[in-house]
Amino acid sequence: MLPSSCSHISFNLTESHENILLTNEIFLGSTVNTDNTMQEKIKERIAVGNKAFFANKNIFRSKLISKNAKLKFYFSVIRPVVTCACETWILKETITNILMVFERKVLRKIFGPTYENGSWRIKTNQELDTLIKHKNIINFARVQRLGWYGHIERMQETRMVRTIHAWKPISKRPMGRPRIRWEDDVKKDIQRLKVSNWKTLVQDRRRWKEVVGKAKTALRVVEPY
User: Fold this and answer.
1) 146, 139 in Cβ contact below 8 A?
2) Residue 30 phi/psi, 5° resolution?
């Protein structure tokens, strides 16, 4: 039974994999729509993240709390609010920029400006990324996706998630460039990690966990300014 907020969601996956209908609704904190767009969902998560940030602004302003403690607070309380269900995100450039702008705002509040040549200046994007050891919000989302992808690949064929993942639409796609699929985006990350035998590794939970661990710092997103 679906919650009352999801009463308009119609989901029908027949044995022949022909019929799926989803309307624009919120289900388990995520927006489900027919266009499969991520941007509105991300904006909603950032809006909730901003509320959590401003609700705890006294912690970030306090001079009695160390920067390391503030950073841990952000990683454990604020960021999870924004990255809820990030395992399913398609990280286009627009979405990446929106998320990085949010995180840098928080990081600049934590680390403050830099005193250089007799004047104060805000820290650059590279400096912020170095301070958090490249464990930015985009890398975090990518690591979560890799872990979820491995979980799906190890599922039994009869599981609903695996069935939907393997499902192929029968109807024709609209004209123009095909949209980036979630699986394509994840496979790009695997290629960036230079994992040649990933189809074998993904079936081994322990070895795939090592690949995911490597991705925590290997998949970097750093602006040159």
Assistant:
1) no
2) -120, 140
Q: What pairing do the DSSP bridges indicate for beta strands 114-116 and 30-32? A: unpaired
Residues 6+ apart with CB under 8 A from 120: 113, 114
Torsional class of 15: left (φ above 0), alpha (ψ -120 to 50), beta (otherwise): alpha
Residues 147-157: tens digit of each pLDDT: 999 999 999 98
Query: Which residue do the tokens 């499969």 mark?
Result: 36
Residue ranges per domain, the chain? 8-123
Beta partners for 120?
115
Contact, 198 vs 211, CB < 8 A?
yes
Q: Read off φ and ψ for residue 3, nearest 5 degrees.
A: -60, 160
pLDDT band per the 50, 70, 90 thresholds, residue 223: very low
3-state secondary structure (DSSP) of residue 207? helix
* pTM for the whole structure: 0.79
Pairing of strands 114-116, 119-121: antiparallel
Phi, psi values for residue 91, rounded to 5°: -90, 80
Helix (H), strand (E) at residue 71: helix 67-73
Q: At what angle do helices 182-192 and 137-153 cross, to 10 degrees?
A: 110
- Percent of the chain past pLDDT 90, that is, above it, reads 49
| 157 SS3 class | coil
